[in-house]
């Protein structure tokens, strides 16, 4: 039996084991996907153990996406550019790091949001790890203008400064009047902060509360638990198009699955399993 799993600390209620195991079963692959909570002191030893022949690889989540980089043998170009690894593949004892968050994000907004960012003006709320993946995905897709609105302005500025075409990337603070203005002029708004996330103090917050937004604008929340965050509920009530964080989660996982198995991931099976797991957790 081959093994894979998710490395993080703490791991909370990760739903990745549900949909990854459902995919293995669906394709008749003899493998398991486990939750691997690892405390920071044990990280180097845990990474070393991924070289064992029965291990296919691992996903990596908070707080290790950057910290694992020096512990790996090779880093794929996308992961190097973004500066974070969410997937490790064990290639006969050689550990290779990838980032499937950016590709999963692009595929989610395209296939499930019917949105192509090329030439468009977009607003990204947040400047943390998930925002870095999205910002690189947007710039790679040649957006016209990328607004990055973050509570800590300096972090948004640092992210904007990573891009050579930084005239196209506009960092702003959440208190800046430009935040409200940009929200009413862009065709896509993505929340990549933890605002609205279940089991947090900010679970009730909609970062776009009281904003005026065109009905044709797509509003995407990277938060996937709950499926309907306050931001998405309010947008739907105003007749604005929405996309939850679940497609990105499942599609980044599907891309990891394909790197480990070299087989096409059964995305529909993964979706329905992920939905069931979220619904079961909400009971
Ligand atoms: P992170 O690196 O810790 O970044 C957190 C971001 O949230 C920062 O921009 C932070 O602003 C902002 N923030 C936190 N509390 C806030 C508050 N009270 N008011 C305003 N802004 C606040 O985390 P991450 O890895 O980027 O993850 C962010 C979210 O994306 C999480 O909810 C995660 O579950 C979700 N995510 C989803 C997927 C998916 O596949 N759907 C993938 C990755 C992440 P400051 O810089 O000011 O602290």
Task: Walk me through what this model shows.
The protein has 283 residues and is of the alpha/beta class. Helices cover 37% and strands 21% of the residues. It has ten helices and twelve strands. The chain has helices at 16-27, 43-49, 77-82, 101-112, 129-140, 153-160, 177-183, 230-237, 246-261, 267-282; strands at residues 2-8, 31-37, 55-60, 74-75, 87-91, 94-98, 121-125, 145-150, 169-173, 188-191, 218-221, 241-243. Strands 2-1-3-5-6-4 form a six-stranded mixed beta sheet. Helix 4 (101-112) crosses helix 5 and helix 9 packs across helix 10 (267-282). The longest helix has 16 residues, at 246-261. The model has no long low-confidence stretch (mean pLDDT 96). The structure holds NADP nicotinamide-adenine-dinucleotide phosphate. Residues 62, 101, 126-131, 150-152, 155, 192-195, 197, 202, 222-224, 245, 248-249, 252 line the site of NADP nicotinamide-adenine-dinucleotide phosphate (NAP).
Question: Characteristics of this structure?
Answer:
283 residues; alpha/beta; 6-stranded mixed sheet; 6-stranded parallel sheet; 12 strands; binds NADP nicotinamide-adenine-dinucleotide phosphate
Secondary-structure element order, N to C: EHEHEEHEEHEHEHEHEEHEHH
Mean pLDDT: 96
Strand order, main sheet: write it out.
2-1-3-5-6-4
What fraction, in percent, of the residue positions are helical? 25-40%
* Unique bound compounds: NADP nicotinamide-adenine-dinucleotide phosphate
- Whole-angstrom Rg: 19 Å
